[in-house]
Specification:
The complex is a heterodimer of chains A (113) and B (115). Helices cover 0% and strands 53% of the residues of chain A. Chain A is built from no helices and 11 strands. In chain A, strands 2, 4, 5, 9, 10 and 11 form a 6-stranded mixed β-sheet that branches. The model of chain A has no long low-confidence stretch (mean pLDDT 93). Chain B is mainly beta. Classes of the chains: A mainly beta (113), B mainly beta (115).
Chain lengths: 113, 115
């Protein structure tokens, strides 16, 4: 039961270019979406989030876009830096309950110098 | 910057033994969670805890699992009789209550190895 899907297990980009990570969801009850970054042997680190009432949220080099009709969101990182190399998890929640997060399988981003 | 801390970082236990994983959530947070990640798989929700009781639990969280907040700071996950398939990274997380932004902040994890 994959309610949150990240279909690209890996992505490789050059430093300075844009990284685009994609995520699809199936549960229409989800109304809050988050991106986490995870380095090996560490816990997920919150990166950016978006509520379903918005279609874009920007924080520095990171922008998340939400297309509710397509049940799709994406994370744009521009410009990409070698330190951005990590596994990126998309997560979704239906607020009003326990606020549990449903995670995708993650996309491993490698930014090459 | 406040953070969620977990101990131990690595726990090795024999099958059938009890383990207790410990967490200190961020002090002003009121929602607490345990998640786990089996090697190579996605992060999975186990249980959420609010107001000294379980608010939601997943199918994974069977009778072998329990959670407790024994004092004002610690939040523990107990596995009564560990199985080989319990080997995973266990992450504790916490979040604020009644916030428009419900980001959960995660600890660094405890790697549980059942042999």
């Amino acid at each position: 039961d994959q309610q949150v899907k990240q279909n690209s297990p890996s992505l490789s980009v050059q430093e300075g270019r844009i990284s685009i990570l994609n995520c699809d969801y199936t549960n229409s009850m989800f109304d809050y979406f988050l991106w986490y970054k995870k380095y090996p042997a560490e816990g997920p680190t919150f990166l950016i989030s978006i509520s379903s009432i918005k279609d874009k949220n920007e924080d520095g080099r990171f922008t998340v876009f939400l297309n509710k009709s397509a049940k799709h969101l994406s994370l744009h990182i521009v410009p990409s830096q070698p330190g951005d190399s990590a596994v990126y998890f998309c997560a979704a929640s239906a607020r009003g309950g326990s606020e549990k997060l449903v995670f995708g399988k993650g996309t491993k981003l490698t930014v090459n110098p | 910057e406040p953070e969620v801390t977990q101990t131990p970082s690595h726990q090795v236990t024999q099958m059938g033994q009890e383990v207790i994983l410990r967490c200190v959530p961020i002090s002003n947070h009121l929602y607490f969670y345990w998640y786990r990640q089996i090697l190579g798989q996605k992060v999975e929700f186990l249980v959420s805890f609010y107001n000294n009781e379980i608010s939601e639990k997943s199918e994974i969280f069977d009778d072998q699992f329990s959670v407790e907040r024994p004092d004002g700071s610690n939040f523990t996950l107990k596995i009564r009789s560990t199985k080989l398939e319990d080997s995973a990274m266990y992450f504790c997380a916490s979040s604020e209550l009644q916030s428009m932004n419900i980001e959960a902040f995660f600890g660094q994890g405890t790697r549980l190895t059942v042999v």
